Amino acid sequence: MKKYITIILAIITLPALGADNNPMFGKNADNAIALYVSQGTGPGSLFKLVDPFLWEFEPMTNLMVQYSQPASIFRLPSRINLAFVQNFGYGHDRGLSFMAVGVSWDVALVQWRGFYIGAGLGPYMRDSRDRYVQSRLVFGERFFIGKNIGDAWRIEFFTQHFSNGDFTEINRGFNFTGLAVNYSF
Question: What is the pTM of this model?
Answer without folding.
Answer: 0.84
